[in-house]
Amino acid sequence: MYSKIKQNLEGYLISDNSKISSSIKNFLVFTAALAYLFFPNQLSSNSNDISQSVYTSTTNKSNNYTTTQEIPEKIQLVYQRLNKYLPTIKQCTNILPSLTELNALSLLAAESDGIHEYENEVNTSNKDAKGLGQIREIAYKEVFENRKSNPYIKTLFRNHFPSFKEAETNPDYNIKISLSYYYLLTNKFDNTTKAINAYNYGEYNLTKLIEKHNEDYLVFLPYQTKDHLRRFNNYRENMRRLPYL
To answer: Global pTM?
Structure first.
């Protein structure tokens, strides 16, 4: 009986030697054998279930997800929406310094949940921000003014710099303008959190808030900006565990 349980358990445990030491494996086998000894009726019908539950409880303690099934369904759904835009996102991250694919995806996810159009109309917020990156004219103008002086933005738009209408309606241009604006903000604030807050609250507004409250500025941010930062961090924390990133 002991040898049968030992064989069943090791069939699962040995498959991941890097995570479970031999001493832990032996302890789990011994514990399962004792359980079988004292509760034979409950456990004898399917000792494989014991093995599987022990393995699952062990691997779930890892800092990283072991399968996509363990990632929240919404995170997977949003990533699937953004997946078709990955070539454009990768083009931006390959050209714009310090812009990572994870931060780019997290920003777009926090802004729009990966939705560019809704019922055949461009996704528009109550502040008239549009598209995947929820861009507004002020963001477009900032990128437009740097289209020649900044070598990275110049390279990104070397074939064509879109009109504001194109940037609103075309998802690829929307992404490029959004991520270019975020890249400019990270340069100005030299801090991811501040850049994300400036993207939502506005560069001028955030600058004034920091001047008044220094590093305590976070307390005085409006609720919408605090919630935007929370969404960004939540997407980032979960998306970094995706096996694709």
So the answer is: 0.71
